[in-house]
Amino acid sequence: LGDTWRVLANALAAQRLHHGLLFAAPAGLGKRTLADALAAAALCTQRAADGHACGVCRGCQLVAAGSHPDRVRVTFGLRDDGKPRTEIIVEQMRALSQRLALSSQFGGLQIALIDPADRMNVAAANALLKTLEEPATATIIALIADDPTRLPATIRSRCQRIDIPAPQRDDALAWLRAQRIDA
User: Which one of 42, 104, 122, 145 has the fewest CB atoms closer than 10 angstroms to its CB?
Assistant: First the structure.
C-alpha cells in the first residue's frame, strides 16, 4: 500500500486528486483503511510530511469522533422494519447529491465514502452517475468495492481506479509472524 499511498498523498498535496476514486480489491487487502486514511488526510489542516493526517488538529479530532461535517459515509441503511438493507438505495444517493451540492462547512474539501459501492442498486447507481458527471467543486467521491465489475461501466469510467495489489508472499508471511499467527 506504500506506493499507492504516495501517489494519492502527492495528488492530494498538489490539489490534483480526481473527483471520483474507485478503491478496488478483494476483501481484506486494506482498501477501506486506505480510503479512510485519504479522507482523514484530505480534511486535516496540518498533514505530516508523508501526507498522513496529523491526528491532533480540529479536523482530525472531528474525523476521529465521526462527526466531521465535510465527511459523509454512505453504507447500508435500515429498512422500515429496522433491519439493515443488503443494498444501497436511490434515496441515499439523492441525499448524498443534495449534501455535496452544499458548500464545505470548513471551507476545504468535502469527501464522500460509498462503501460498499458495488452493492448499489441500479437506481442508486444511476443517481450517483449524475453527481459524478457534474461534481461540485472541492468534492471527492470515493467508491469502495470488493467487486468493481458489479458497478456499471459508466460509473467505472468516471472514476480513477485505485487497485490494491495483493502483498508479496514474503511480506504476507512477515506480517502473519508479527501478528503471532502461524504461517
Answer: 122
Q: What is the pLDDT of residues 66-110, one digit of tens each?
A: 999 999 999 999 999 999 999 999 999 999 999 999 989 998 999
The phi, psi pair for 144, rounded to 5°, reads -120, 120
Per the prediction, the chain carries an average pLDDT of 93
Please tell me the pTM assigned to this model.
Answer: 0.89
Q: Describe the strand order of the beta sheet including 139-145 as a list of residue ranges.
A: 71-74, 110-114, 139-145, 20-24, 160-163
* Rounded Cα–Cα distance for residues 75 and 55 (Å): 25
Question: HEC states along the chain?
Answer: CHHHHHHHHHHHHCCCCCCEEEEECCCCCCHHHHHHHHHHHHHCCCCCCCCCCCCCCHHHHHHHHCCCCCEEEECCCECCCCCECCCECHHHHHHHHHHHHCCCCCCCCEEEEECCHHHECHHHHHHHHHHHHCCCCCEEEEEEECCHHHCCHHHHCCCEEEECCCCCHHHHHHHHHHCCCCC
Mean pLDDT of 4-21: 95
CA distances, 149 to each of 16, 25, 32, 74 (Å): 26, 11, 18, 20
Q: Rounded mean pLDDT of 43-49?
A: 95
